[in-house]
Design a protein that fits this description.
This protein has 3 helices and 8 strands. The protein has about 160 residues and is of the alpha+beta class.
Length: about 160
């Protein structure tokens, strides 16, 4: 093999290796993306059915039911409602009528099975995604007003 062909073979090998590395990084990045959806978007079928995503809005007043460590509640954007099931400890600041973001999967029965629940930090804060969803639904409280610090519920 001539020196020129050796150099071409090395360059081709490096290009193939870089392409493979790029493909692996992009695949890992895409599989770790978690998108936010409002109850209206979930009801419209815009949310993925086989992938984790975040559901955000307000905890509907009177909807929280506890059965041991399992908690059921409804997330609403005042236009639509999605039932949520969560097993574990909720953040201390989780309350009815307040902002919440739950991360998990939508079950075939239409119930969102949360693996993690994020609650507001103080009296004024609402997660930006939830505030935007409420604003789009015409709810007057859809404006975040303080630093984006969330308290999380520890998954079990």
């Amino acid at each position: 093999m001539t020196p020129r062909r050796k150099r071409l073979a090395i360059v081709a090998g490096v290009v193939v290796a870089l392409g493979a590395a790029t493909a692996l990084v992009l695949n890992a990045f895409q599989s770790n993306l978690v998108f936010f959806f409002s109850p209206t978007q979930v009801a419209a079928g815009e949310a993925p059915t086989q992938r984790t995503f975040r559901l955000g809005g307000l905890v509907k007043a009177g909807s929280v039911e506890r059965d041991g460590v399992e908690i059921r509640f409804i997330v609403t954007d005042t236009a639509r409602e999605i039932p949520v099931r969560y097993q574990g400890l909720l953040p201390d600041l989780f309350k009815e009528g307040k902002g919440v973001v739950a991360q998990g999967l939508l079950g075939p029965d239409g119930v969102f099975v949360a693996r993690e629940v994020l609650a507001k930090h103080d009296e004024n804060y609402m997660p930006p995604e939830a505030a935007e969803a409420l604003k789009q639904a015409g709810h007057p409280g859809g404006q975040p007003q303080s630093a984006p610090t969330l308290q999380t519920g520890a998954p079990r």
